[in-house]
User: Fold this.
Amino acid sequence: MKAYWTPELLAPAGSLEKLKVAIMYGANAVYLGGQKFGLRSAADNFTYEEILEACEFAHSRDAKVYVVLNSFLHDKEIEELPSFLQHLEKAKVDALIISDLGVIQTVRQNCHIPVHLSTQASCLNTYAAQWWKKMGVTRIVLGREVSIDEARAIKEATGLELEMFIHGSMCMAYSGNCVISNYTQGRDSNRGGCAHSCRFEYSLGEENSLEQKKAFFMSSKDLEGLRVLQDFIDAGIDSLKVEGRMKSHHYVGTISKVYGEALRYYQQQGHLLSDDLLRWEEELEKVTHRDYTLASLKEKAGEDSIYAEREHNNSEFTIAGMVLEATDDHTLVEVRSRFTPNDRLEIIPFSGASTLFTATEIKDLANRQVEYTRPGTLVKLPPMKNAKYFNLIRLGGQA
Assistant:
């Protein structure tokens, strides 16, 4: 059977465990940050030992690991970078995601790891892409302002690998150029300290005026590109990126599963007219998100891309636990959220539809009955035919 070409699915890895979840649920590659030099200082960033384990785990499953060095650095930090690069090369990291030209030069002088240009550099046109190619960049993560059609033209003109965002949070500013939280919170947006000040409610009005209007005028809806997946493929976009290194296991697993299944379907069939399309879209609704938008993928984002609401959790679904062992006698689960024997649960397989069940019996490791679970503990559930190691169990399923 002919296998049709599909892009790489690149998922966020905010921790070692999330990395494993992403890959086991279908991601072809993951991106992560070390303890320094990245833009998500609040994430569970990786130690060197964890980066080493991450690469071993990913490579054993034919997946790739990219490390972000996308902060804008000062001279002292540049001086500290070479030793870190040596560690990354020994770990066999597949690429580095960089926005600072000085960092790119330092990398090229100290290691042989390929360089991907971060979206923080806001590369939006063919001329910029050609210049970055001369600087040794092998892939460009295009700015979120670029449409799929514009990306196709850039690829045809440069021959570079291109990466575009397909899902996740959007930024109201050109990436790498926002300093709002520097002023509102004293936290540097471009050095790992973004406070997401654009999500706040602001009062608008003329000075000394009694008329004030409150609005979330800078907050954007979330990107969701499932319906234009065919356009990405037709344009030859090499990698489809999911935003969210600080988001949950549920988010990472669900998004990786949905887009991974869709891409595998295309790889086998050569089209996306799947009966599963509605199920995939329903799954994307189950993760916490703002309203969805296509942003600038088809045409320039307009007023309807603004998320004019206060932040809230619009999903009733949470992760109850993770399967650690599945035998003929029991299913061993690490509890993440409280649940009881009467609660309706879903086991989320690595592919295919979820299986609904009721935890009719819950036992601890000593085989004593448990009335309700506690996060951080291990419990035994009845054996489940399709349960596998690292499957997520979701609380909130509907019968």
User: Anything to note?
Assistant: Residues 220 and 306 are 5 Å apart (CA to CA).
